[in-house]
Design goal:
Elements (H helix, E strand, L loop, with lengths): L1 H21 L2 H22 L5 H20 L4 H20 L10 H25 L3 H26 L3 E3 L3 E5 H22 L3 H32 L14 H21 L6
Antiparallel strand pairs: 1-2
Length: 271
C-alpha cells in the first residue's frame, strides 16, 4: 500500500504542479474542470447510483455547467454566495447525522448537493487564479488545509480521546481538530511576522485561517457522511493507494470557496 501511495504521488505531483501553477486562462479552467468532472463521476456513486450510465451522465452535466459558468463570469458572486450557504447547511447536516439524512432529498437530492459542492470549488479556483498573486493564493489555501490535516493526524494519534463526530468519522477527535487548527495558525502567524503585517492584518489573517481550516473539516466530514450512508470506504480507486479524487479534495472543496469569499470581503480581489 505504501509503495502504491508513493508511486501515485510521484506521478500526480508534477501533473498537479503544471496544472495548478503553470496553466492559465482557459487551459487552467479545463484542467480544474477535468478534476471536478472526475469528482462528479465519483459523487454520483456516493449519491446511490452505481451504474455507469448515470455516473457518466452526471459528470457530463457538470462539464456543461462549468462551460456555462466560464462563459458567464458574472455568476461567480452568486455561486460563491451559494457555497457559503451550503457549507453552513452542511455543518448542520454533519452535526445531526444520521437524523439529517432524511433532509438530503434521496439520491436525486444528493446529486444536487454534489453540484453545490463541486461547482463553487471550480469557480473559486478560477477566480483566485485571476486575482493578484493568484498562484500564491492557491498555494496558501492548500498549505492551510494540508498543514491542518498533518497536524490533526499527529495530534489525534498522540492525544486523541474525545470523538469529534463518531457517527460520521469515528477516527477523528477533538484533540486532532485542535492540533490541526493550531498548526495552521502557527504557519499563518509565522508568515505574517515574516511579511511584516500590522496587528490588524495579523488578527484578520488568523481569524480567516481558522474559518478556512474549520470549514475544511466540514468538507472532509461531509464526504465521509455520504460514504458512510452509502456503505462505501473510498469514493473510487482512481488513485491507487489514495482512494478516489474526492477522497483527496474533499477538504479543499469547502476551504477554497470560503477562502475566496474571505479574501473578497477583505478587498483583495473583484468579483
Amino acid at each position: 500500500m505504501l509503495k502504491q501511495r508513493i508511486i501515485t504521488a510521484a506521478i500526480l505531483l508534477p501533473v498537479a504542479i503544471i496544472g495548478f501553477f503553470l496553466l492559465h486562462g482557459l487551459a487552467f479552467a479545463i484542467f480544474i474542470g477535468l478534476v471536478v468532472a472526475l469528482g462528479a463521476w465519483e459523487w454520483a456513486r456516493l449519491a446511490g447510483f452505481a451504474g455507469q450510465p448515470v455516473r457518466i451522465a452526471y459528470a457530463a452535466l457538470v462539464v456543461v455547467l462549468l462551460a456555462v459558468l466560464y462563459q458567464l463570469p458574472a455568476l461567480a458572486p452568486w455561486l460563491l454566495a451559494l457555497a457559503v450557504l451550503w457549507w453552513l447547511a452542511a455543518t448542520y447536516l454533519v452535526l445531526t447525522y444520521p437524523q439529517s439524512s432524511r433532509l438530503w432529498g434521496g439520491s436525486a437530492g444528493s446529486l444536487v448537493i454534489g453540484l453545490a459542492i463541486l461547482l463553487p470549488s471550480w469557480q473559486a479556483l478560477v477566480v483566485l487564479k485571476q486575482w493578484p498573486l493568484g498562484n500564491w493564493l492557491i498555494l496558501a489555501v492548500m498549505i492551510l488545509v494540508w498543514a491542518a490535516d498533518i497536524g490533526a493526524y499527529f495530534s489525534g494519534k498522540t492525544f486523541g480521546k474525545r470523538k469529534l463526530a463518531p457517527q460520521v468519522s469515528p477516527g477523528k477527535s477533538w484533540e486532532g481538530l485542535i492540533g490541526g487548527l493550531l498548526t495552521s495558525l502557527l504557519i499563518t502567524l509565522a508568515v505574517g511576522i515574516y511579511r511584516g503585517w500590522s496587528v490588524r492584518e495579523l488578527v484578520l489573517a488568523l481569524l480567516g485561517a481558522a474559518v478556512v481550516v474549520l470549514i475544511s473539516v466540514i468538507g472532509d466530514l461531509t464526504e465521509s457522511m455520504f460514504k458512510r450512508s452509502s456503505g462505501i470506504k473510498d469514493s473510487s480507486q482512481l488513485l491507487p493507494g489514495h482512494g478516489g479524487v474526492m477522497d483527496r479534495i474533499d477538504s479543499l472543496t469547502a476551504a477554497i470557496p470560503i477562502f475566496a469569499v474571505l479574501l473578497w470581503l477583505a478587498g483583495w480581489g473583484v468579483l
